[in-house]
Amino acid sequence: MKKILVPLILASLSVLPSLAAASSSSYAQLLEQISAPPPAAPAPAPKAVPGQRADGRYWVTIAAPDKRSRTRLLEEGFDIVVVSKDRRTVSGIADKALLDRLSSRAVSVLSSRPLADYSSGVSRDFPQADAVYHNYQETTDLLRQLAAKNPDIASVFSIGKTVQGRDIWCLRVNTSVKGNGPSDKPGAFFMGNIHAREHLADEVPLLFASWLMDHRNDPEIKNYISTLDIFIIPMANPDGVEYDIKDGQYQYFRKNMEKNSDGSFGVDLNRNFDSWWCREGASHYPPSDTYCGPKAFSEPESRDIRDFFLAHKNIKTHISYHSYASEILYPYGGSDEDVADPRDKAALVKIADQMAKLTGYTAEKSSALYIATGDSCDWAYATDKVLAFTVELEGDGFYPGPAVIKGTVDRNVKAAVYLLSMTANPYQ
Asked: Is the CB of residue 5 less than 8 Å from the CB of residue 219?
C-alpha cells in the first residue's frame, strides 16, 4: 500500500491546496502572503547604518583547487560561502586580521572588497522588504497557533534555553504523547536555522509544519501522523537570528551570541558537536565564523540539541536545513571515511538521491568539497545511527528575498514527506 500511496501524495504536492483553512496558520494563506508583492522599498541610505556588521569585514575570493586547501582555509578561520563550479576557487567572509594572516601565509587571495560594498545591492530591510520571513516571535506564535488548532495531534515545548535566555521551541506531532515525553513510535526530526543568517532554513520546516496540519486528513499523511513521532524545530539559534536582523539591517551573522574570551561574539554551533570536534575544517580563532568554541558542547544551544536527541532514542531520520548550495548531504562531513555499516550507507545514499530528485538538488557525501568537523548530523549518526541529512537550500545568497520561498518550500515539502515514508523502515 505504501508504495502506491507515496507517489500519489508526492504528486499532489505540485498543486497548491485551496484556501479552505482561513487562518494565519494555514499553509495556503502563508503562501499567499509570501506571493504578495512586497511594499515599496525606501530610498537607499546615503551611508551605512550604524551597527551594520558588514562594515569592517571583506568578501574574499581565494584559489583553493582541492579539498585539502579548502579544509585548511576553514581551519584558519575563513568562512567558505561559495565554491566555484569548477571547484578551483572559493569565496567567503573574513575580517581584516584574518585577511592579513591569510595573505602572509602564501594563500593566493584573488580579490577582496568590503562586505558592505559586496552586499550593497541586497535589500537588508527585514521588517519591510523581507517582512514575509518569520522572526523569533512570529515563528513562536505560528507554532503555538498550529498546536492550539490541532490539540489532538500537536503540542509545543521548549528543548532548552539559549545564551540570552530564549526558548528553543519544538512542535511535536504525535497522536498519543504530548510535550517532551517518551514514545515508542519511530521518530523523524526536522531542524532549521542553526546558522543565524540562513533565514530560509526557518521558513522550510516552519511551513512544512503548517502543511502537515492542513493535510492531516489526507490518507497518507494521516497514516504518518498516527504511526510516527514527528519533531520540528524551525529555529535552533534564535539569539543569532534576532541579532542578524537587528535595527532592520542584515548583519551577515552566523553564530550564537556567546561572548568569547577575546571579546568577540559567537560560536559556530555546527562546529561545536562532539564529532571529531575541532580537528579538520574548524577554527580555534574566536572571531571566525567557523569558530568551534573552547570545547565540544560548550554552548547551551548545542547541548540542548544533544540532550533532545538523547532523550528521544526513537528518532530514526533527521534533516538539518541550511542555505545556500542546493545540495543533499549525508555523513560523514568530518571525515573522508564512509559510514562503516553497509546497510546504513546504502540507505543514506538512496534517501539522499531520492530527495535530490524531488528538489532538483545534488546529492553527495558531506565531505566531498571539504572536511568540516563538529557537525550535528555526523554526531547524530555516530551516536545513535540516526540517518541524518544536511539539506542546503537554494538561492543566490543568504538574503534571497521573498520570491524564493514558495518554490523552495514546495520542493522541500516533497522531500520531507518522502523522508517520513522512509522513517519506519529506512532500509526498505
From this structure: yes
Q: Which amino acid is at 353?
A: D
Q: Which residues pair with 328 in a beta bridge?
A: 363, 391
Angle, alpha carbons 90-73-162 (nearest 5°): 100
List the helix and strand counts (H, then E) for the chain: 13, 12
Q: How confident is the model over 48-57, as a mean pLDDT?
A: 50
- DSSP 8-state code for residue 233: E
**pLDDT at position 146:** 98
Instruction: Work out the angle between the directed axes of helices 403-423 and 219-227 (0-180°, nearest 10).
Output: 60
* Percentage of residues in the chain having pLDDT higher than 90: 75
pLDDT at residue number 279: 94
**301: nearest Cα among 365, 237, 348:** 237
- pLDDT score recorded for residue 321: 98
CA 244-236-98 angle, to 5 degrees, is 50
Q: Which pLDDT belongs to residue 118?
A: 62
Q: Which residues contact 296 (CB under 8 A, 6 or more apart)?
A: 272, 273, 274, 277, 278, 374
pLDDT grade for 247, boundaries at 50, 70 and 90: confident
Average pLDDT over residues 243-270: 94
Q: Which has more confidence, 48 or 190?
A: 190
8 Å CB contact between 60 and 92: yes
Q: How far apart are CA 428 and CA 423, in angstroms?
A: 10
Cα(262)–Cα(257) distance, integer angstroms = 14
Angle 264-265-269 from CA coordinates, rounded to 5°: 135
Please check whether residue 185 is in contact with residue 156, taking contact to mean a CB–CB distance below 8 angstroms: no
Q: 70: Cβ–Cβ under 8 A, 6 or more apart, which residues?
A: 64, 80, 83, 90, 369, 370
Q: Which strands sit side by side in the sheet containing 362-365, from one edge to the other?
A: 154-161, 167-173, 229-233, 187-191, 315-323, 387-393, 327-330, 362-365
- The structural domains of the chain, ordered by start, are 2-39+125-423 (3.40.630.10), 57-118 (3.30.70.980)
pLDDT in tens, 104-160: 877 899 999 888 776 544 433 354 668 889 999 999 999 999 999 999 999 999 999
Q: pTM higher than 0.90, yes or no?
A: no
Of the candidates 57, 112, 71, the residue with the CA atom closest to the CA atom of residue 370 = 71
Active site residues: 392
pLDDT value for 22: 36
